[in-house]
Design goal:
alpha/beta, FAD/NAD(P)-binding domain, five-stranded parallel beta sheet, 21 strands, about 25% strand, binds flavin-adenine dinucleotide
C-alpha cells in the first residue's frame, strides 16, 4: 500500500481517548518519530491509574495516589482537544464531537475505554446511591469501599467479578481477598457469610493459578457461585438476584455488596459502523495486527478493542509496541507485527501477597517478569504491583519510554 499523501488539513494521527492506551501511544508515536503530528481527543480533566483503585478499596492507597491532572500527562507536542468524540465518518475520514467540532484525520486510533452499562443490572445504580452497594471499578465509589468493608462485623456480603468486556476483570477479586485478610486478622471472618459470584467457572482460566485461588478462597470460607451474574437488585430491601445456569438465586438483607457494573463500548462505535457485531460493540479489529478489518486507516487498542484476550494495563505495553511498529510499517508498505494477546492478572490473595499471572491469548503462560510470575502468591509481587508499577507508569509508560 502506498502512503497517503500529506494533507495539511488533516491530523496525521488522531487518538481518541487519553487513558492508559491513548497517552502511552501518543507519547511513543512522538518519541519514535512515527507520526508527523498527533492530536488527542479526551474530555476528562483527570487521568487515573486505574489499577490503584483496588488498593483504595483495600485501604492501601488514596484517590490522590492514582489521579493526575490530564494536562500534566498529555505529552508535549500532542494537541489536546478537550472534547468527546460522538461519531466517526469513515468516508470523509473525520470525527465529530459533542461540542460540534469536526476533526479530520489521516490515521485514526480508537481507545476510548468502556462505558458502565447500568441498564444491564436494574436497581444496581440505586443501590450505589443508597450506599450499601459500591465497587472499586466506579471511581466515585472507590473511596467508600474500604471504610465500609473494614467496619463490617457480621451479615452477608456479596462480591462480583464482572463479565467480559471489563478492564482486567479478575482484579475485582482484589478487594474481596484483601478484606478477607483483614476480617481474618480481626477475628470476625467466621461471623460473616462471604459470597463470590464469578461469571465463568473459574476466576482466570489458567489451571494452576485457578487452583491456587480456589485454595485461598476455601481457606477464607468464601462461598463461590459459578457462572453467576447479578440479574437485578432491590435497593430498598437489599436483595440481589443472581442468575446461574440452573436457577436464579436470591441473597436477602445484604450487609454490603461489592457489585461491579457490566460494561459496553461507547455506542457511537457501533453507530459509526466500526463494531464487531457482539452486543458489547467493541471496535472490530484484527486482534493480531490491531487494524480495523474493513478500514485500513483505523486502528484500536485497549479496553474498547475486540482483542480476544482479557484486557489489562499490562497488556497495553505490548499493544502499544505492536501498534507503533504497524503504523510505521503500514505507511511504508512493510510487514505488520502480530500481538499474541499477552495480558496480566495481578490478584492480591491477602493484605500483603499477590499472585501475578501472565498469559497469551490461548491461555498459555507467558513470563515477562519471570521472578514474580509464579503459581505462588508473593510479597515481592505485591510490592511491585502496589509501589513499583505506579512509578513506572507515571515516569515511563505515559512518557513513551517503556
Ligand atoms: C478497578 C480497576 C482495576 C484494574 N486493575 C488492573 C491491574 O491491576 N493491572 C492491569 O494491568 N490492569 C488493570 N486494570 C485495567 C486497566 O486499567 C485498563 O485495561 C486500562 O486502563 C485500559 O486503558 P484504556 O486507555 O483502553 O481505557 P481507559 O484507561 O479507561 O481510558 C479511556 C479514556 O477515554 C476517554 N474517553 C471516553 N469516551 C471518550 C470519547 N467519546 N471521546 C474521547 N475520549 C473518551 C476516557 O475519559 C478515558 O480517559 C484495572 C481496571 C480497573 C477499572
Amino acid at each position: 500500500m502506498t502512503p497517503a499523501p500529506h494533507d495539511p488539513h488533516r491530523t496525521d494521527v488522531l487518538v481518541v481517548g487519553g487513558g492508559n492506551a491513548g497517552i502511552s501511544l501518543a507519547a511513543r508515536l512522538l518519541r519514535t518519530g512515527t507520526a508527523r503530528d498527533v492530536a488527542l481527543v479526551e474530555p476528562s480533566p483527570v487521568h487515573r491509574y486505574r489499577p490503584l483503585l483496588n488498593y483504595v478499596g483495600g485501604g492501601e492507597a488514596t484517590t490522590a495516589d492514582l489521579e493526575r491532572p490530564m494536562v500534566d500527562v498529555v505529552p508535549d507536542g500532542v494537541r489536546w482537544v478537550r472534547d468527546a468524540v460522538d461519531g466517526v465518518d469513515l468516508d470523509a475520514r473525520t470525527v465529530t464531537t459533542r461540542r460540534g467540532r469536526t476533526l479530520a484525520w489521516s490515521r485514526l486510533v480508537l481507545c476510548p475505554g468502556l462505558d458502565e452499562d447500568w441498564a444491564a443490572t436494574p436497581g444496581l445504580q440505586d443501590a450505589y446511591a443508597a450506599g450499601w452497594a459500591f465497587s472499586t471499578y466506579v471511581p466515585a465509589a472507590a473511596p467508600l469501599v474500604w471504610p465500609a468493608l473494614r467496619r463490617l462485623r457480621e451479615g452477608t456480603v456479596l462480591f462480583t467479578v464482572p463479565p467480559e468486556p471489563a478492564g482486567c476483570a479478575p482484579t475485582a477479586l482484589k478487594p474481596l481477598l484483601m478484606a478477607c485478610g483483614h476480617w481474618q486478622r480481626r477475628g470476625v471472618l467466621d461471623d460473616l457469610r462471604v459470597v463470590l459470584a464469578l461469571p465463568l467457572r473459574h476466576a482466570i482460566g489458567v489451571p494452576d493459578a485457578d487452583a491456587r485461588l480456589e485454595e485461598v478462597l476455601a481457606g477464607y470460607g468464601v462461598e463461590v457461585w459459578r457462572e453467576a451474574t447479578v440479574e437485578s437488585v432491590d435497593p430498598v430491601v437489599r436483595t440481589v438476584e443472581v442468575r446461574t445456569p440452573t436457577l436464579t438465586r436470591r441473597l436477602e438483607d445484604l450487609a454490603l455488596a461489592h457489585a461491579v457494573p457490566h460494561y459496553t463500548a461507547p455506542g457511537w462505535i457501533e453507530a459509526s459502523g466500526l463494531a464487531d457485531g457482539d452486543p458489547a460493540g467493541l471496535v472490530d479489529i484484527d486482534p493480531e495486527t490491531l487494524r480495523a478489518r474493513a478500514h485500513p486507516d483505523v486502528w484500536a487498542i485497549g479496553d474498547a478493542a475486540a482483542l480476544r484476550t482479557t484486557s489489562s494495563g499490562g497488556a497495553l505495553r505490548k499493544q502499544v509496541d505492536v501498534l507503533v511498529h504497524n503504523l510505521a510499517a503500514a505507511a511504508a508498505g512493510g510487514r505488520l507485527r502480530r500481538y499474541d494477546g499477552y495480558t496480566v492478572a495481578p490478584i492480591t490473595t491477602s493484605r500483603r501477597r499477590l499472585l501475578l499471572v501472565e498469559t497469551d491469548r490461548s491461555g498459555a503462560r507467558r513470563r515477562r517478569l519471570p521472578l514474580l510470575s509464579r503459581a505462588r502468591p508473593r510479597l515481592s509481587a505485591w510490592l511491585l504491583d502496589r509501589y513499583v508499577l505506579p512509578r513506572w507508569y507515571w515516569r515511563g509508560i505515559l512518557r513513551g519510554r517503556v
